[in-house]
Every structure is written in C-alpha cells, then in structure tokens.
Design a protein that fits this description.
This protein is mainly alpha-helical. The protein contains four helices and three strands; from the N terminus they run βαβαβαα. It starts with 20 loop residues before the first strand and ends in a 7-residue tail after the last helix.
Length: about 140
C-alpha cells in the first residue's frame, strides 16, 4: 500500500475512504481493486469516492510518488521506492485475494538443466522473501 500521507503516519483502513484513491484499470488482468481491499479490511466503501483512474501500473506508481493519492501496490515491486522514501505505507493492514503462482514440471520425463536451475532459483527466492522453505520437485 502506498500513500502521500502527510508525515508518513500510518492510518486505519477506514481513514483511506476520504483520500484520493489511485485506481488501476486493466481489462486483461484481475488486479486487487479498492472495493475488494476495503471489504477484506472490514470497511464499507462509499459509492462515490475521489479517484484517479489509469491503465498502466507505472502511471499508478508515479502518481503515488507525486503524492496524488493512495495506490494498492505489491511489496516486491515497490520495496525500492519504500527504501528510498519515495512512498510510504498508508496503513499496516493488507489484503490478499488468494492468488498465486505455480511451477508446473512434467513428471513423465527428466527436466532440462535450465529447468532445474530455474525452479531451484525460484524456490530459493520464495524462501528468502517469505522464510518458507519449499520442497524441490
């Protein structure tokens, strides 16, 4: 979660209702949207809110960096912006709609060296970022 919250103070999810919400609208993908984020955090979102709608994630982040509103963001994408203090977290709360990524490997034949190295690297990244070790197939 990103924001141009004055002083970088964390606020409660309900306090975000009155702020300008930056909205990513992409017909090709099912991103987390504000109504879902508020619902998952126990907040009733009003029918009318102040919002800016864009169709590119880079535009969304740029608007957040410029302090134009609050955006829903993914930590692994914005960690650098957070470290550089270009943006700040708006709230401690977060939300997930249960999506995920899967590594599918054939079990009827041997994997190539490239496939083995890639899955090993991928699983190591998960372990480093989450602390959860995954069994290598």
């Amino acid at each position: 979660m990103l924001a141009g919250v004055p002083g970088g103070a964390l606020v409660a999810p309900a306090d975000l209702v009155g702020r300008t919400l930056l909205v990513l609208e992409d017909a090709q993908r099912q991103w987390m949207c504000w109504p879902d984020w508020f619902r998952l955090n126990g907040v009733q979102m009003p029918k009318r809110v102040d919002q800016i709608v864009v169709n590119r994630y880079a535009q969304l982040l740029e608007l957040a960096v410029l302090g134009q509103g609050v955006a829903i963001a993914w930590r692994h994408i914005i960690d650098g912006c957070l470290e550089q203090r270009l943006v700040v977290r708006a709230t401690r709360e977060s939300a997930s709609n249960g999506g995920g990524y899967y590594a599918l490997v054939p079990n009827d034949r041997a994997r190539s060296t490239a496939a083995r190295l890639f899955t090993h690297w991928l699983f190591e990244q998960v372990r480093l970022q989450t602390g959860i070790p995954l069994a290598h197939a």
